[in-house]
Amino acid sequence: MVNDLIHALDRLDAMPEAVDLRRRSYELLGAGAGEAVLDVGCGAGLAVAELAALGVAAEGLDPSPEMIGLARRRYPGAEFHLGPAEALLHADGSLRGYRADKVLHAMTDPVAALAEAARVLAPGGRIVVLGQDWGGIAVDSDDPALTRRLLAALAEGIPHPMIARSSRNLLLDAGFRDVEVEGRLAVFTEAGVMMHLLRRASNDADGASWLADQLDRDERGRFFGMAPVVIASGTR
Ligand SMILES: C[S@@+](CC[C@H](N)C(=O)[O-])C[C@H]1O[C@@H](n2cnc3c(N)ncnc32)[C@H](O)[C@@H]1O
């Protein structure tokens, strides 16, 4: 399961659109050389390494030992810690930047995590949260009703599937100012990056033939999937 996720994230990370989205998130963070930034739910650590390469004092945090182990192996010079976003060990006002990419939906308590973000950021510090809205994921199919049902069931298995559309309001509720929101549409014409989700969605009595149809579309160059992505940012 974790290996499937890592493989899917690696493929996604390499897409030009994903490279551009990360670059935009760093721009919105606005961290200068030597400024302390925490990447929460850092996964395999790519953003931490990229921020460090820009001179930022970046640090990654993730509650998954597999993810933190992989991040440390991939980027031995970077700083990674094991732990959840809901209970940070950082002192009040000790960070200039806080970033969470494709993470809020997976958290146990995103409201508590954003309260922690507000606590650890210094006045004037920046927060950037981004991620896909699972309620808006769409896949082309000859059976739209079945597709809708499978994708809805997939979303129901996620702790906070629609949190992307709430992210602006959550930052406002957590007391951030200058809150801004941007949107992107991620479009996939190959199943590869979405395969992890397609397999999970097809875990249903009617799922096997649906997945076979999607794989056949992919082989014929006819796969089409899309997901709305929301980037919300604010100032402490
Ligand atoms: C879809 S991955 C995204 C990883 C990385 N941010 C990226 O963009 O590739 C979601 C990550 O959130 C982490 N996560 C789950 N619950 C969390 C929590 N409560 N606090 C921090 N991270 C969490 C998972 O362990 C996983 O590494």
List the helices and strands and how they pair.
Layout: H1 2-14, H2 16-29, E1 36-40, H3 46-53, E2 57-62, H4 65-74, E3 79-82, E4 95-101, H5 110-120, E5 121-132, E6 138-139, H6 144-156, H7 163-173, E7 177-188, H8 195-201, H9 207-219, E8 225-235
Parallel strand pairs: 1-2, 1-4, 2-3, 4-5
Antiparallel strand pairs: 5-8, 6-8, 7-8
Bound molecules: S-adenosylmethionine (SAM).
Can you tell me about this structure?
The protein has 236 residues and is of the alpha/beta class. The chain has one domain: Vaccinia Virus protein VP39 (Rossmann fold, 3-Layer(aba) Sandwich). The protein has nine helices and eight strands. Strands 1, 2, 3, 4, 5, 6, 7 and 8 form an eight-stranded mixed sheet that branches. Helix 5 links the parallel strand 4 (95-101) and strand 5. The longest helix is centred in the N-terminal third of the chain and has 14 residues, at 16-29. Residues 9, 40-43, 62-64, 67, 84-86, 101-103, 106-108 line the site of S-adenosylmethionine.
Write a brief caption for the model:
By secondary structure, the protein is α/β, with parallel strands linked by helices. The chain contains nine helices and eight strands. The relative contact order is 0.15.
Spell out the key features of this protein.
Rossmann fold; alpha/beta; binds S-adenosylmethionine; 42% helix; globular; 236 residues
What are the distinct ligands in this entry? S-adenosylmethionine
The named CATH superfamily: Vaccinia Virus protein VP39
Q: Any low-confidence stretches, pLDDT <50, length ≥5?
A: none
Kindly report the CATH topology: Rossmann fold
Pattern of helices and strands: HHEHEHEEHEEHHEHHE
User: How many beta-strand elements?
Assistant: 8
CATH architecture: 3-Layer(aba) Sandwich
Calculate the mean pLDDT score and round it. Answer: 96
Number of discrete helical segments: 9
Gross geometry: globular
The gyration radius over C-alpha positions equals 18 Å
Strand content: 25-35%
Q: Quaternary state, please?
A: single chain
Please summarize the sheet with the most strands.
Answer: 8 strands, mixed
The structural domain count equals: 1
| Fraction of residues in helix | 40-55%
Q: Classify the secondary structure makeup into a structural class.
A: alpha/beta
Question: What's the level 1 CATH class?
Answer: Alpha Beta
